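[job 0412] stage=complex_fold ligand=1-deoxy-D-xylulose-5-phosphate status=START
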Amino acid sequence: MGTTEHDTWMLAGREMTSRIILGTARYPSQETLLESLKASGTELVTVALRRVNVGSADGTDPTNLYTLLTERGYALLPNTAGCFTAADAILTARARPRGAGRVADQAGSAQELVRRGFQVLPYTNDDPVTARKLEDVGCSAVMPLGAPIGSGLGIRNPHNIQLIKERANVPVIVDAGVGTASDVAIAFELGCDGVLMNTAVARSRNPVQMARAMNAAARAGRDAFLAGRMPRKFYADASSPSEGMISPLETS
Ligand SMILES: CC(=O)[C@@H](O)[C@H](O)COP(=O)(O)O
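[job 0412] stage=complex_fold status=DONE, emitting structure tokens
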């Protein structure tokens, strides 16, 4: 029987325990960011290569985000957010080649990055055909959106996410659009391997508390998936047995 207790998974050759990946932008303070990461239980965090101030090149500046995160044991997932062309993404990923790379473009640029030796985790729309193409060119995972980035609208098309997951041979990570804990639970109930989120935690009234809720939701959703959902039925199915029921005629 499945259980979330020893439920590790592999992402780009790395064994992962937590199924949550958190973004590091938009937090009210660095302290809140660090506390939220801890509360979420995450091991892997994203940093935007183009937007973040990475501090000194050798990483010795103590306020450098890389230093703060790596000394706390977080693995970094650099992302190429802000790149609008394949050339941009490739240039940015090559300039700062720490950890795995994430590319904003689709199959062509992903293929080029794979060819150059990157582990590519592409953010994509929720189209099963696109997801298949990205897997076919050698991406280490596919990361379909739940909804537009920063929208908090939740998983708009659970059916597509489920189709992507059913056909994929690489991890499927819902990336973007999560608004609250129940969205995370749904992603895992659908069988997804991970959820990447930023705004829902960073822009909540209490990011640390929301991060804790996301952590609990991930475990709940994953447990529900492993437990196996009951089949949906179109009609009522009484839960008490009807055999031996006293009929109205017998009592009159
Ligand atoms: C943080 C990151 O890398 C993005 O994938 C994105 O910002 C996530 O989207 P949300 O902010 O909607 O969670």
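The longest strand covers residues 44-48.
[job 0412] exit 0
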